[in-house]
Design a protein that fits this description.
The complex is a heterodimer of chains A (about 375) and B (about 325). With about 375 residues, chain A is of the alpha/beta class. Chain A has 15 helices and 7 strands. The longest helix of chain B has 15 residues. The mean pLDDT of chain B is about 95. The chains are: A alpha/beta (about 375), B alpha/beta (about 325). The complex binds thiamine diphosphate.
């Protein structure tokens, strides 16, 4: 099915990652990566990143209060997630890992429902078909195949949608993303592999994860263009993803994108990062904060004022408190639902076990 | 008309693809070649490469993309070329295929039928004769079917593809060339029902897949000794049709389970447990098991010593009757 041979040089990642915004907000125009957003769109990227950060912070607080069992923060990765997800059209699909709160908020997934996984009430609690946003995936990298299969389906169906899947630098070592890239390359499925290289897989730094010159180089072996961008620069993540989306929608096939970012928080709330990284490293990373950078840019463009900041802050607070309420109020879960949705067409072979639970519950109620 | 089990499955795939254009068949060598056992013969010719296609050689990739295709709205029927090569896909099957409908509280349906030629007896090389059914039957969210006759192969395959639940469809490869006099299409009992293939009064023999024929031969031979065996073809390993098993034991008072897979924690263990839980007072003897040994599947020249056969079954019949 592969079309005319691809020039291997076109697959090579550029020497420098695409970078459009300096930390002080200075914008560098790049004709290869135009920004097709109006002022409202630019503000929207800022708003989404700030809301993501507030909800993320709220989730960490909720975990500390014992309301969530564990939580995997995306602090520092807001630009990578928001910029890339914003480059998709509404009908395009996202297949996330467990860290994509920012992408979920772009998709207007109910964040309280999303956190049920971490609360332990339900395994997942959003309808993927409503938001075109797949279930969070805990086994590393496996979702890359679901995104690829879905994209293969869309292509078979002549449906011009694109899928995008997120995984981490650690995920690039797993087998499934490689099988996914093999399938995507061969079938030219409209799928984008978006890697957030946040420098660590739990405690393992990138140099212990791979000997490849960059993660984007891995794509070449599958016939995919490997692209790189500054993952803390929301305009760069947006523009590079947009290009990949246009390419996929035009039937030109999949793209692999490596976004260079930094995980500012612990891997999860159960992690102790002081064992494997220094305060100096963190201090340096803070200088590249994606949200401050975008604020500086908006200021330079006169798109930022206290009114905007207040509006966005208020909204962020509102969403955060909505999430808190949603978590406090989450029903504990009806134990009898254990037996629901295991099969579409259950043939009654666990009737006895269902009855057992029912009678255990009845007995418990009797005592109470 | 004489139809082989392989032809029956081929016809089932053909008919399902004709009736529903969302049915897709894919895997390693299923296209031009028609599968290493020719089970997908001519499907690509008839339905084009869009609907019957060769995939890269990547089992996790085959099942993982089947999940994505099913989420999109197709009804994938992926093939695993051999039982021993399903293991690379194990994670996709148990972590996602089996669980996603439940994790999504029913919003995601995954009507995927995974075809796996399984079991020994064909003199194959290593990794081509495994019986991994217990892994699948142990996994909630999967249905596990295995036909023992060409009629069932056709009918159960059609039912599996029509189902909205994921199905592991185990094809007894040494019976691919077994013939029945039948005319397709044929509709047999629903797959979740066990079927009494031969009525008897002395001992119930529970079997499935490749061992159905072996058990029938054992029943034939037992008759010469004056023993009457009832042969129950389980057909579905998940769910297991416990009422039919229990009713049979209540009639005969004795039970033997036959399967190729190794004994420890095999299907026989579950069947024996259910029988003693629910038919304890009917039992005249312990439930016995004629199975493969708890060793790796042997080299081809030794498989006849490993696989359960008529003699191994008859020895157990005698033991049961002498109890
Ligand atoms: C198949 C698998 N192996 C191990 C784990 C345990 N684990 C959870 S997260 C993680 C690190 C993942 O790192 P990376 O892919 O870089 O993503 P990040 O957490 O940095 O977003 C590991 C080893 C897992 N979830 N799945």
């Amino acid at each position: 099915m592969a079309d005319a041979a691809i020039d291997p040089r076109e697959l090579l990642p550029p020497d420098e990652p695409v970078h459009l915004l300096d930390p002080d907000g200075t914008y560098h125009e790049d004709p290869e990566h135009p920004i097709d957003l109006d002022d409202a769109g630019l503000r929207e990227l800022y708003r989404l990143m700030l809301v993501t950060r507030k909800v993320d912070r709220e989730a960490i607080n909720l975990q500390r209060q014992g309301q969530l069992g564990v939580y995997a923060s995306c602090m520092g990765q807001e630009a990578a997630q928001v910029g890339s997800a914003y480059a998709l059209a509404e009908e395009d699909w996202i297949f996330p890992s467990y860290r994509e709160l920012g992408a979920a908020l772009v998709r207007q997934v109910d964040a309280a429902g999303l956190l049920h996984l971490y609360r332990g009430t339900w395994l997942s609690d959003h309808d993927p078909y409503k938001h075109h946003f797949g279930l969070m995936s805990i086994p590393i990298g496996t979702q890359a195949l679901h995104a690829t299969g879905f994209a293969m389906g869309a292509r078979l169906d002549n449906n011009p949608i694109v899928t995008m899947t997120y995984f981490g630098d650690g995920g690039t070592s797993e087998g499934d993303p490689h099988e996914a890239m093999t399938f995507a390359g061969v079938t030219r499925a409209p799928v984008i592999f978006f890697v957030q290289n946040n420098q660590y897989a739990i405690s393992v730094p990138l140099e212990k994860q791979t000997a490849a010159p960059t993660l984007a180089h891995k794509a070449i072996g599958y016939g995919l263009p490997g692209r790189r961008c500054d993952g803390n620069d929301v305009l760069a993540t947006y523009a590079v993803t947009k290009k990949a989306v246009d390419r996929a929608r035009a039937g030109e096939g999949p793209t692999f994108i490596e976004a260079l970012t930094y995980r500012m928080e612990a891997h999860t709330t159960s992690d102790d990062p002081s064992r494997y990284r220094t305060q100096a490293e963190l201090d340096e990373a803070a200088l590249t904060d994606p949200i401050a950078r975008m604020r500086n840019f908006l200021q330079q463009r006169d798109l930022y004022d206290t009114e905007l900041e207040e509006a966005v802050e208020d909204q962020a607070k509102e969403v955060a408190s909505y999430v808190r309420a949603g978590i406090y109020d989450a029903p504990h879960g009806d134990p009898m639902e254990l037996f629901e949705h295991v099969y579409v067409d259950p043939t009654g072979h666990f009737d006895l076990q269902r009855e057992q639970l029912r009678s255990e519950l009845d007995a418990g109620q009797g005592e109470g | 008309m004489a139809v082989t089990l392989a032809q029956a499955i081929n016809q089932a795939l053909h008919d399902a693809m004709s009736e529903d254009e969302r049915v897709l068949v894919f895997g390693e060598d299923v296209g031009k070649l028609g599968g290493v056992f020719r089970v997908t013969d001519k499907l690509q010719e008839k339905f084009t490469e869009d609907r019957c296609f060769d995939t890269p050689l990547a089992e996790s990739g085959i099942i993982g993309t089947a999940i994505g295709l099913a989420m999109y709205g197709f009804r994938p029927v992926p093939e695993m070329q051999f039982d021993g090569f399903t293991y690379p896909a194990f994670e996709q099957i148990v972590s996602h295929l089996a669980k996603m409908p439940n994790r999504s509280r029913g919003t995601v349906k995954l009507p995927v039928t995974i075809r796996i030629p399984y079991g020994g007896g064909i003199g194959a090389v290593e990794h081509h004769s495994e019986s991994p059914e217990a892994y699948w039957a142990h996994t909630a969210g999967l249905k596990v079917f295995t036909p023992g006759t060409p009629e069932d192969a056709y009918s159960m395959m059609r039912a599996a593809i029509a189902m909205d639940d994921p199905v592991i469809f185990l094809e007894p490869k040494r019976r691919y060339w077994m013939k029945s006099d039948t005319t397709l299409p044929v509709q047999t009992e629903p797959p979740h029902r066990a079927v009494v293939r031969r009525e008897g009064t002395d001992v119930s023999v529970f079997c499935y897949g490749p061992m159905v024929r072996t058990a029938m031969e054992a029943a034939e031979a037992a008759a010469d000794e004056g023993w009457s065996l009832e042969v129950v073809d389980l057909r579905s390993l998940s769910p297991l049709d416990t009422p039919t098993m229990v009713a049979s034991v209540e009639r005969t008072g004795r039970a033997i389970v036959v399967h190729e897979a190794a004994q420890t924690l095999g299907m026989g263990a579950e069947i024996a447990a259910r029988i003693q839980e629910q038919a304890f007072y009917s039992l005249e003897a312990p439930v016995l098991r004629a199975t493969g040994y708890d060793t790796p599947y042997p080299p081809a020249k030794l498989e006849e010593f490993w696989l359960p056969d008529v003699d191994r079954i008859l020895d157990l019949v005698e033991r049961s009757l002498n109890y």
